[in-house]
Every structure is written in structure tokens, then in C-alpha cells.
Amino acid sequence: MVSLLDKKKTAAQIVANARSEEKMSAYELIDGIFSEFMELHGDRLSDDDAAIVGGIAKFNDTPVTVIATNKGKSAEERLRTHFGCPEPSGYRKSLRLIKQAEKFGRPVITLVNTAGAYPGKSAEENGQGEAIARNLLEISSVKIPVISMIYGEGGSGGALALACGDRVWMFENSMYSVLSPEGFAAILWKDSSRADEAADVMQLTPEKLLEQHIIDGIVPESRSHKRVFKAVKKILQKELIDLEKLTSFELIEKRQQRFRQF
Amino acid sequence: MQLFNELKTLGHKHIKADKKAGEKVPSGMWIACPKCHQSFYHKDLGVYQVCPNCEYGFRITARERLKWLVDSFSEMDDSLKTTDPLKFPNYQKKLSKARVQTGLNDSVLTGMAKIEDQRLALGIMDPAFIMGSMGTITGEKITRLFERATRQKVPVVLFTSSGGARMQEGIFSLMQMAKISQAVKRHSEAGLLYITVLTDPTTGGVTASFAMQGDIILSEPRVLVGFAGKRVIEQTTHQKVPSDLQDAERVLEHGFIDAIVARKDIKKKLAWLLELHSKGSDANG
Ligand SMILES: [Zn+2]
């Protein structure tokens, strides 16, 4: 495997790194960036999805709402979270917490690492499409800043549902795409073994996505987790200061312009 | 960012050619219903192209649907053309073929329409245009439709039919989900009515955005409605999926569709719903 720290990486190498076992877990990342995190469970309808972790915390002494997709560390946890692929109840939990944040005027930070929304029988029955659709609809006009960090995989609508706010940053070793390179190659070339080639064509690397204004910046990664946390904190602090200068009207206008350009 | 150009090549010639193509199907041909597997003479499907046995509505192009749906229609944005942001190999050829087949510049037909006496902004997705996939122009046309409807204070009716996001335009296709959703939201905040009519098939990113955002969600009978593809579900879960998991009738039972309406009744039902909601918006505005 190519080290996370090699510069000049191919798209396929970035895909491999984004999915690497060495990636930080959601909880490690939350603990590294925020303090006093308290997890809040459940969608208030039927379920508590382990693939989405949410709650309240402090960021430099300011209250914030944190929502993160969670792939899990142990085999048991990975089974429970479907390797970080949320169920509809996960998206409903995230929307509940975003609405709660809006009520109390605190910003939301989402940390995204998911191959996509879970494709399962019960997910279909419980309205996976509707759950994502509602997130997209409601987040488009919430009156609080929403900042997203894609820290591993950003897969399709399942990632977009948590990254449709005011700012989207990506870790140096992360990807964001409409479909996995394997799925892309299978659909377009009937050959999933051409995934590396697909990764290149798809322009799913942070550098390419920054050029296209899909994202707002890239978080440099290093072997030291501490250094990564420091970099993330610096970015979040600056973005929050910028966004909090805006009235809620301006905030929503700018958020909508951000997506209107595509 | 420039994500579309004006299309210079699509003229009325192509649209006429398509009409002919639609009528070319020999009326004596046998056709099997993909849902109930009964066979019929093609002409037995009638003007609505519906299975006489189970009421499944066969996939039809947007222009075919338009013929019996509206009393007047003025098309919008029929010359927008994608810039092909990924410069994807062979994509242009595929687009040209789809344009000829459907008489559309992309996978949705949009415009201002009248159904009986009701004015509305109407969008009809076309399953024959690269599987009804949603690319940048699909998203742009639908967004503009909602923006215009919001300005003119009219309801929106959208017929969905899509295999999901268009792979050939990569992440830009994905962004359409967010772009359209916020236009839907603005329209909704203006107190205006949005009705979706799900037609076969409605899947992927379209289900996960505007198809499921209607105030009222209707469906034709026996339509495939889902988020993930069946094969993907079976590969992921290593379990066989019930064959009717994504039938509109099951989706309704789970609470995600308001009503199933036969194709021949859609026009009347829409006219009634539009009329019923028009009083309220008159009083407000
Ligand atoms: Zn039938």
C-alpha cells in the first residue's frame, strides 16, 4: 500500500487511502476536534442507527452540533454500522439534530466517511430515498452554518445528504464521487476490474474537486493525528468566524448559490 | 461555472422524425407485459400504452405522454446542452442518439402547461433518454422550472422516470440533487403545490431527491420505485430480495406514496387536485 503521506498520488491510490484501515474512526476524530462531546441517540420515530453518530459538543468553548458517519473499529461494530453505510433512520437522526441545532442557534459540523447509503431490504422499506431527499430539502434552508468535512469516502447521495451545507472540505486522502469506481466501471464498461481507470476518469480526488469548486479546501494529512486535528480546528475556526458574520438570510442565499452554479 | 451551452443542432426536424419513430411500431406485434407476463397485441395497449390485464403503464417517451396529458404546452429550455464536464469517451455520440430517439435535448421535457383550466409548470422525464438518467441539463431544466413556477406562483407537476444520476457527468450529476432540492424548497416556502407522479422506473438519485419531495406523491400502478438497485442489494446483503420489494404498491404500504392512479385517470386526478389547491393560493396572493 502507498503511504498516506506520499505526495503526487494517482486517483486509484487516493481511493485506496480513503478506504484505508489506518483511517481515524468517527469517535477519534470527534474527540480530537471537539471537547465535552455528548452523544444523542435516535431518530424519534423508530430507530437509532449506529452508522451515524451525533450529539452536542464544544468547539473552542462554543456549543456546536456534531454529526459523523461511523464505520466502526471492531468486526462487531462494523457489522452493526454496515461499514458506515447509514440506514434511513440515520439520516432522520441527523436531520433531527440539525433542526435542534437550528432551534438553539448552534452551528453544525458533519464528518463524512461513507461508501453511501445502505442498500438493504429494510432500508428500501423504510424509505432510504425519502430520508435523503428530506435532508437535502430541509438543510437547504436551515438558519445555522453547516460545515462538512469528508475524511474518507464520500459516496453518492448518502454522502451528499450530509454535505449539502455552506462549506465542504476534504481530507487529502479522501474521495467524493457519484458512485464507487467499481460500480462506475461495472455500469459503463461492464467490467468492475477497470476501477482504477474509472477513478481517474471520475475526477474524484480532492485536487480535482477543488478545481471544479465542488469543495472549498483540502485538509493536509500527516502521520501525527494531533497535527491533523490542529489543521481541522484551524479551518473550522476560520470558516465559523466567516459564516457567523452573515445574517441568516445571507447565509441561506450564499448556500443556495453554492449549489446553483452546478 | 459554465455547465451548459445552447444546443444548435436540435431542430424541429428531429422532433418530427421522432414522432414517426413512435408510430412505426407495427400494430399487429405481440408484446409481453414485463409485470404480469401476459402477451397482447400491441394495439390492445391502446392510446395510454397500458397492460389490459394489470394496468401497468408501459414506458413511453415524454412527448408521447404529453399528447394526452395537456390541453396546452409551451416548452422551455429545449436548447440547453451539456458541456460534457468529464469529457467522457463516447458520451457525445450517446447523447446524439438519445436526442434523435426522444426529440428532447436531455432527459426531461419542461414547460408551462394547462390541464383543463389549470395553469401549471410541468416536467416529464423520459426513460428513453439514457435511461432517464439525471445529468446537469436535467437538473438545470428542473431547477429553472421550479424557479419560474415560484416567480409566476403556479404549481409544479413532475413525472419522474429515471435510472438515477448520470454516470457520464460524475459528481456534477450528484450536485443536481442538491440544486433541485433547494429550488423545490423555495417553491414550497412560497406556499405553492408540488405533485410528483412516479412512473416506471423511479430510482437512485431521483428517488433520493425531488421524486420524494412532493406535497402529494402519486404513482402509476406497478411502477418500480426504489433507491438502490436490486442486484446491489442482493450483492451487499447476500439475501434474495422479494420480487415486489420496490413495487409502488408495497412502497405505498410502507407510507411513501399517497395514491396509485391508473394512467388513464391521471389527467382528471391532476386537474382535480390543481383546482382544489388553486382557491387557497388565490386567497393568499
Ligand atoms: Zn400486465
Automatic annotation (TrEMBL), chain A:
What InterPro entries does this protein's entry cite? Acetyl_CoA_COase_a_su (IPR001095), ClpP/crotonase-like_dom_sf (IPR029045), COA_CT_C (IPR011763)
Q: Which UniProt keywords apply?
A: ATP-binding, Fatty acid biosynthesis, Fatty acid metabolism, Lipid biosynthesis, Lipid metabolism, Nucleotide-binding, Transferase
Looking at the UniProt record for this protein, which Gene Ontology cellular component terms does it annotate, in alphabetical order? acetyl-CoA carboxylase complex
Instruction: Check the record and name the Gene3D superfamilies matching this protein.
Output: 2-enoyl-CoA Hydratase, Chain A, domain 1
Looking at the keywords, is ATP-binding present? yes
In its UniProt record, which GO terms are filed under biological process? fatty acid biosynthetic process; malonyl-CoA biosynthetic process
**Protein's name according to its UniProt entry:** acetyl-CoA carboxytransferase
Q: Which reaction does it catalyse?
A: N(6)-carboxybiotinyl-L-lysyl-[protein] + acetyl-CoA = N(6)-biotinyl-L-lysyl-[protein] + malonyl-CoA
Instruction: State which Enzyme Commission number(s) the record gives.
Output: 2.1.3.15
One annotated GO molecular function is: ATP binding
Q: In which pathway does it act?
A: Lipid metabolism; malonyl-CoA biosynthesis; malonyl-CoA from acetyl-CoA: step 1/1
Q: Which residues form the CoA carboxyltransferase C-terminal domain?
A: 1-242
Say which species the protein is native to: Liquorilactobacillus uvarum DSM 19971
Name the NCBIfam families for this protein. Answer: AccA_sub (NF041504)
